[in-house]
Amino acid sequence: MSKWIAIVPAFVLAGCAHEYMYQPAEHATGSIGGHVAADYQIPPAAPQGDVRLASFGLGELAPAKGSSESRPALHLRMVVSNNGAEPWTVDTREQKLDIEGSGPTAPAFSTTSEGNAGLPLVTVAPGSKRVIDLFFPLPPGQQSAGSIPAFDAIWNVHHDLIVFGTGADGGQDVAGVVQELLQP
Length: 184
Fold this sequence. Notes:
The chain has strands at residues 2-7, 21-24, 30-32, 35-42, 49-61, 71-82, 88-91, 96-99, 103-105, 109-112, 121-124, 128-137, 150-154, 156-159, 162-166, 173-177. By secondary structure, it is an all-beta fold. The chain has a single domain (2-177), classed as Sandwich (Immunoglobulin-like). Strand 4 and strand 5 form a beta hairpin. The N and C termini lie far apart (37 Å).
């Protein structure tokens, strides 16, 4: 799990609106587009690539057509780099955001730098990287940055029958083998 905390700049003047930015509380060794990012090597023992996660703050989710109603969402960017010999897969439905006090939620919308073709599955070919933008709706009662002091990003990347990522139990990087059920 990637732990994130809200940072309020110390130079905010009295009477001005607060500006929040979220930064990783662990693995904060990477960057994405000028934002501090959590960086995880895959697999941890013998890296063949990495996953970087950065918060791009809050945005608005609005229906494509028809309604003018929008709702606030947290924008998390995930960059997956595969330097191995086999393709990796990211299922955007498996990526979760756990905001303190509300429980894990899946993204309401996701997109890639190449567009939406193939979603919710994103294939990361050998020798390539993919940029995935995930937008998580804010829970009722927590509709502003000031009401979100911290959150955890829970992510998974699939390689053959092995799943790399972080678990919802707060543990360190997890590598588990997917069990296939065989019918007689």
